[in-house]
Input
Amino acid sequence: MIIGKVVGTVVASRKEEELVGMKFLAVAPLDLATGETTSGGVIAVDAVGAGVGEVVLYASGSSARQTKLTNNRPVDATIMAIVDTYEVGGEVLYQKE
Output
């Protein structure tokens, strides 16, 4: 799993039938040591009801197709958890409000 921050939404009015009804979010990876967003990112299917500004855990590759929502669907990244607290070395880098 990768920790990231939801930085935006993606709307696609025309898509593969197996993706109809799925919400797409833009996710930037976080630096584990600092909690800051890094360059790069993915467009991920949201399996848990995440929103912009939230810190999430996501999987990519074949692991992204292992949730009930994404099973056997053409996705390469899936948000599978919303983070409540993110701590490194005893220092809280993120606390959900």
